[in-house]
Amino acid sequence: MYLLRFAGLLSVAAIVAFIDWRRNGVKATRPREYGFVFVCGLLGAIFGILWDQGTVTLSPDYFIYGKGLNPEDGPLRVLALALGFKAGFFGGLVVGMTYLIANSSGRNRTVKLPYPVLLRGAVWPLLALIPLAVLGFFVFETWDPLGKAPELRRMLSKDQTQNFLRVWGLHAGLYLGAVLGLIFGVIRIRKALNLAISLHEEEENGQNCADAEP
Questions:
Q1: What is the pLDDT of residues 2-27, one digit of tens each?
Q2: Rounded Cα gap, residues 154 and 139, in angstroms
Q3: Which residue stretches of 121-157 are H helix?
Q4: Which one, 80, 110, 133, 152, has least CB within 10 Å?
Q5: What are phi and psi of 110, to 5 degrees?
Q6: What's the pLDDT tens digit per position in 69-82?
Q7: Of 40, 46, 37, nearest to 16 (Cα)?
């Protein structure tokens, strides 16, 4: 079902982009916008796959009891791969669409940052999530802030419980870091966009003054 929705989404985006290109030629914006969002989604999917493959190695039980994956449905690594792809792709789409909105809401809608600049801004969620994921690892391992260790020990061994909490902390830190990094990335984009708009307006004013001179 997810693959059908994914294929449907891509088909609709491709059709809209093609119509925009047919109508406006090189001035069409939809192909570049959708392409940027899709690239962000792919980068997020790659990260999600790698992340979940690492954490499923550390604690398979987290994915079984915490994420609800059923080993009877297939190899756990394959199930974790699919989960990582879906979560990462969705997260990447959110980043891409948020950055597009931030780049299109300036006081001068004709001035926008180039897509490579926006794509480099995707590093901020990564830079924020890594230290917070590490922090979550040690916080959940040491203090068990949600008090789930006694319940887990009724199902798992001591080592399995410890690894479950570690991976839980990694994922909690990842989600928090991604959100904070996205917010910081939007702030950086807005500052860069406002600077670009100011420079553009100064250039226009200078050109107008030059044209007005006799």
A1: 556 666 666 666 666 667 666 766 66
A2: 22
A3: 123-143, 149-153
A4: 110
A5: -80, -15
A6: 999 999 999 999 99
A7: 37
For the chain, the straight-line distance linking the first and the last C-alpha, in angstroms and rounded, comes to 69
Separation of alpha carbons 74 and 62, rounded Å: 16
Q: Which tokens is 117 given?
A: 């600049």
pTM assigned to the model: 0.84
**How far is residue 22's CA from residue 18's CA, in Å, rounded to a whole number?**
6
Tokens standing for 4?
A: 């059908």
Residue scoring higher pLDDT (114 or 63): 63
Angle CA(180)–CA(103)–CA(203) in degrees, nearest 5?
130
User: Minimal CA–CA distance to 36: which of 95, 124, 85, 123?
Assistant: 95
- CA atoms within 13 A of residue 92's CA, in its CB half-sphere: 23
Instruction: Give the least confident one: 21-30, 34-43, 83-92.
Output: 21-30
Question: How far apart are alpha carbons 53 and 144 in whole angstroms?
Answer: 24
Tokens of 12: 């609709």
Count of residues for the chain? 214
* HSE of 125, CA atoms in CB hemisphere, 13 A: 25
Give the CA radius of gyration of the chain: 23
Could you tell me the CA-to-CA distances from 96 to 41, 63, 119, 122, 146 in Å, in that order? 7, 27, 8, 8, 32
Q: How high is the mean pLDDT of the chain? A: 84
- pLDDT tens per residue, range 112-140: 888 888 888 888 888 888 899 999 999 99
CB neighbourhood size of 76 (10 A): 15
